[in-house]
């Protein structure tokens, strides 16, 4: 009101001097840093590692340039290199020698993850080890649970699957996992896992719940990495419909009630709205998984010379943190640790 009044009475250059205008501090990098709201830190990131029982040498993952499947004998070394870069946590995925219909490799005392955990813990006990708790890599049919086929349809049997997930989580905890991360999306698995961990004396083992995990096209490259594409059907009967935000919030609430320590939203960039709402509504430590397809998209644009990798990745990660992520799972964790140091 005042400004309009002046404007009619005085020439504009005078108004600029008299009326307070908000301004942005952007003159120098130092000044911009001083007022920057979101600062990335190496402590924000978790590095996923794929460990295979079938390999002697590391094997590049074609769909994810720069990522590898690692043989068991290299896993401790890779983990301690990650720690030397300043990273605090790794997320382990296992590729077993054999798959079957009971996913027995997932909970065997000498399964690939159990061996990997013991090997990492003997070399760097202070690194936080998080394990993916899911059955898809261990099932011959590639689904995340026990299935029954009726004619043309298949069902995932929720409670039977939860039993196997509980066994898996317990065996990971016994082998040294600091946190287990159930990514299967069966109902009631967080409560069942929490109860079993407490009953067996693993009350210090935490749970990261993939609480809002959507049935997404962006997992495509991962399924090559983890050798876990479903042999029939898809995962829409147990992963979430990407049209549903309120349902996602209800799922998160349930997982928190059942005892999740950290809740996760996945994938990342197409779901920033949910990340924000989950962080705002529940105030729980919130993780986001920047998934394989999101990684592959940027990588291929970089390979074509269309994007600058470092600038783009730093912008994406800052956006995830700004939207509420306390923890970011990313295949760029190692590079980020280096870039943030330079
Ligand atoms: C299931 C699991 C998947 C991912 C993490 N855990 C695949 C799926 O649900 O189909 C995807 C991660 C990524 O795409 O980077 N064990």
CATH superfamily: Aldolase class I
Distinct ligands: ligand PBG
Structural class: alpha/beta
| Strand order, largest beta sheet | 1-4-5-8-9-10-11-12
Report the principal-axis shape. Answer: globular
Query: Which CATH class is shown?
Result: Alpha Beta
Total count of strands: 12
Describe the structure.
With 342 residues, this protein is α/β, with parallel strands linked by helices. The chain has a single domain (41-341), classed as Aldolase class I (TIM Barrel). The protein is built from 14 helices and twelve strands. β8, α8 (189-199) and β9 form a beta-alpha-beta unit. α7 runs parallel beside α8. The longest helix has 18 residues, at 158-175. The protein is globular and about 80 Å long. The mean pLDDT is 91. Ligand PBG binds next to α9.
SSE order and pairing:
Blueprint: H1 2-9, H2 12-18, H3 29-34, E1 45-52, E2 59-60, E3 68-71, H4 72-84, E4 89-95, H5 104-107, H6 112-123, E5 128-133, E6 146-150, E7 153-157, H7 158-175, E8 179-182, H8 189-199, E9 206-213, H9 220-225, H10 245-258, E10 262-266, H11 272-282, E11 286-289, H12 292-303, H13 309-322, E12 327-329, H14 333-341
Parallel strand pairs: 1-3, 1-4, 1-12, 4-5, 5-8, 8-9, 9-10, 10-11, 11-12
Antiparallel strand pairs: 2-3, 6-7
Helix pairs in contact: 4-6, 6-7, 7-8, 10-11
The protein binds ligand PBG.
The site of ligand PBG has 10 residues, from helix 9.
């Amino acid at each position: 009101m005042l400004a309009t009044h002046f404007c009619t009475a005085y020439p504009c250059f005078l108004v600029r001097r008299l009326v307070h205008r908000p301004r942005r501090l952007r003159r120098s990098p130092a000044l911009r840093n001083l007022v920057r709201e979101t600062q990335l830190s190496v402590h924000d990131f978790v590095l996923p590692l794929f460990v295979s029982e079938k390999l002697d040498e590391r094997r590049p993952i074609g769909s994810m340039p720069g990522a590898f499947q690692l043989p068991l004998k290299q896993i401790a070394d890779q983990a301690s290199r990650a720690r030397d870069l300043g990273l605090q946590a790794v997320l382990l995925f296992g590729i077993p020698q054999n798959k079957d219909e009971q996913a027995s490799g997932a909970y065997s005392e000498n399964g690939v993850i159990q061996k990997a955990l013991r090997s990492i813990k003997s070399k760097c006990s202070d690194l936080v080890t998080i394990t993916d708790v899911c059955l898809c890599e261990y099932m011959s049919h590639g689904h995340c649970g026990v299935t029954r086929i009726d004619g043309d349809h298949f069902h995932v049997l929720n409670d039977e699957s939860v039993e196997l997930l509980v066994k898996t989580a317990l065996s990971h905890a016994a082998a040294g996992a600091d946190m287990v991360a159930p990514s299967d999306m069966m109902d009631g698995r967080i409560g069942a896992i929490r109860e079993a961990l407490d009953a067996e004396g693993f009350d210090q083992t935490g749970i990261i719940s993939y609480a809002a995990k959507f049935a997404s096209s962006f997992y495509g490259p991962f399924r090559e990495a983890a050798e876990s594409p479903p042999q029939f059907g898809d995962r829409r009967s147990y992963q979430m419909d990407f049209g549903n935000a309120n349902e996602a919030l209800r799922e998160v609430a349930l997982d928190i009630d059942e005892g999740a320590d950290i809740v996760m939203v996945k994938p990342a960039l197409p779901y920033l709205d949910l990340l924000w709402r989950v962080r705002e509504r529940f105030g729980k430590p919130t993780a986001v998984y920047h998934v394989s397809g999101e990684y592959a998209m940027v990588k291929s644009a970089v390979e074509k010379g269309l994007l600058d990798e470092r600038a783009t990745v730093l912008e994406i990660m800052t956006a995830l943190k700004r939207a509420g992520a306390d923890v970011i799972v990313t295949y760029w964790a190692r590079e980020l640790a280096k870039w943030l140091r330079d």
